[in-house]
Amino acid sequence: MFSVNHPVLFGLAGVVILYVLGQSIFFTVKAYKRARELEMSKTLLRSIMRGAGVFSIAPAIAIIIGIITLSQFLGLPLPWLRLSVVGALTYELPAATSAATVLGISLTDALTDARSYSTIAWVMTLGSFSGIVIITFFLRKIEKGLLTIKSKDKKWGAIFMDSLFIGMVSAFLGMIFSKVTFGIQGWIPVFVMIFSSLLMLFFGFLVKKKNIVWLENYAMPFSMLGAMAFSIPLTAWIGG
Amino acid sequence: MSQYDQKIHLWGRVSGILAIIAFASYPLLVSIYFNAWPYLGALGKGLLGVIPVFYTVGIIEAFTYAPMLGAGGSYLSFVTGNITNLKAPCAINAMKVAKVEPGTPEGEVISTIAIGISSIVTTVILFLGMLLLNTLAPILESPTLAPAFANILPALFGGLAVIFISRNWKIAVGPMVFMLILFIVMPSLADKVSLLVPVGAILAIVLSRFLYKKGKL
Fold it and tell me: What is d(CA A119, CA A98) in angstroms, rounded to the nearest whole number?
């Protein structure tokens, strides 16, 4: 008898997630050893690792909410797998919705038909393959192209890299303003962003002027968490 | 290319191919075990509904993020996912804290370590979250906490913006103003923000090239 929470499904998802966990550990260990060869201090590396860990907590908890959302009709194993590995909720939810709509299935009740479940799992899997396929087979070529740019002019190479980052940040900053014409509620993300920026500047001040060096590693995660906390009274006050 | 760089590509390719097989094995084994092969018509239509956008985004992300994250970071983050909302900002922050530049040997290893640790922490939290789901769900889905999770991207990019704008305000102003106007005029683009990342990047590259040639950078 098929169930979206069948033990076999947990087993399959668990094996794939364990593989990805193993890969993460393998790459981290290799990079750590290489960093030591490059004479980077253990103190710095440990501090970077702690910072990355703290940084990941809030987004990871947000991903759990994604699992809860999808689990209502897909059960736990598939959303757990998809959101632990290649996917993000922004891909997985539309992919599942696209397949469910074609099948005429409600997104609020747990699936009972194994073939419908299999169809949705295939759509979610095949629909998100492009990035990993390109990186796996063509990253070396992409890197060679980049090396050519850098070797021709080192200063321009650095500016080129910064421009890529700025492209990403500017697109997301623009998105944060996308609802400002919808009324005062549409400004909530903007105020949250500004609060996060102010916190970042404040932490920067503490690091540079007050010499609280340890804070540098946590300035970003603390700004993010502080701004997320700020959004709660702000939304209650404005009425989101 | 150093021995490490050569090896990272070998490890990346092998582990990437294995990951692709592992990901495909889930629906395949589900189909075999439950004798539940997908409805082909629905599969085709479902894929048609997502591939045009997802494949475009995937290709764009590969070309945009790979130079930022370095080889090890890219191989890892494209397998572990959640790149825009977690892995890329995490790696960028780590490189900034370590005072190393992306694309250098030091930047490469710091980015890989940050993404590796982020993946491990995320996997553990998701596992614990799944085990404790019945306890956690009412808390995480409570209306009180809802605004905090709804605003995670503004909270994340507010801090990141300070790093990049303070360092490169001359390059940043143009793409930012362009994106602000674009999103205010066309709010529906918010769902397709990934497609606009390379637009912002190209704009920033063209602008910085112009300023660089004029000797203003």
Answer: 11
> Considering only CA atoms, which of B98, B85, B163, B155 is closest in space to residue A166?
B163
Q: Which of B38, B93, B109 sits opposite A35 (nearest CB)?
A: B109
Give, to the nearest 10 degrees, the angle between helix B105-131 and helix A77-84: 170
Q: Which of A181, A182, A232 is nearest residue B144 as measured by Cβ atoms?
A: A232
How close is the nearest chain B Cα to the Cα of A28, in Å? Answer: 5
Report CB contact under 8 Å: B118, A118: no
Question: What are the pLDDT digits (tens) for B162-211?
Answer: 888 887 888 999 999 999 999 999 999 887 787 888 889 899 999 999 99
Residue A66: CB atoms within 10 A of its CB come to 21
Number of domains in chain B: 1
Domain that holds residue B173: 151-217
Give the distance from CA A13 to its chain's centroid.
20
Q: Per the structure block, which two tokens stand in for A67?
A: 């699992």
Per-residue tokens: B85: 């909302």
Residues of B whose CB is below 8 A from A178: 183-184, 187, 189-190
Tokens representing B212? 């660089």
Q: How many CA atoms lie within 13 A of B194 on its CB side?
A: 22
Q: Is the model more confident about B79 or about B54?
A: B79
Cβ-contact A95, A128 below 8 angstroms: yes
**Domain-embedded: residue B214:** yes
Q: Is residue B200 within 8 Å of A167, Cβ to Cβ?
A: yes
Task: Rounding to the nearest 10 degrees, give the CA dihedral for residues A22, A25, A30, A36.
Answer: -170
Best of B3, B28, B65, B82 to mutate (most A CBs within 10 Å, chain A): B82
Partner-chain contact A159 B92, CB within 8 Å: no
CA A230, A233, A235, A238 torsion-angle sign: negative
Instruction: Please give, rounded to a whole number of angstroms, the shortest distance from the CA of A218 to a CA of chain B.
Output: 9
CA atoms of B120 and B77, how far apart (whole Å): 12
With CA atoms as reference, report the closest residue to A84 among A126, A110, A56, A119: A56
Best mutation target among A166, A179, A187, A194 (most B Cβ atoms within 10 Å) is A166
DSSP string computed for A87-106:
--HHHHHHHHHHHHHHHT--
Per-residue pLDDT reduced to its tens digit, A39-54: 999 999 999 999 999 9
Other Cβ atoms less than 10 A from the Cβ of B66: the count is: 24
Phi, psi angles (nearest 5°) of residue A113: -95, 120
Yes or no, beta carbons of B130 and A168 under 8 Å apart: no
Chain A residue numbers with beta carbons less than 8 Å from the beta carbon of B36 are 2, 114-115, 117-118
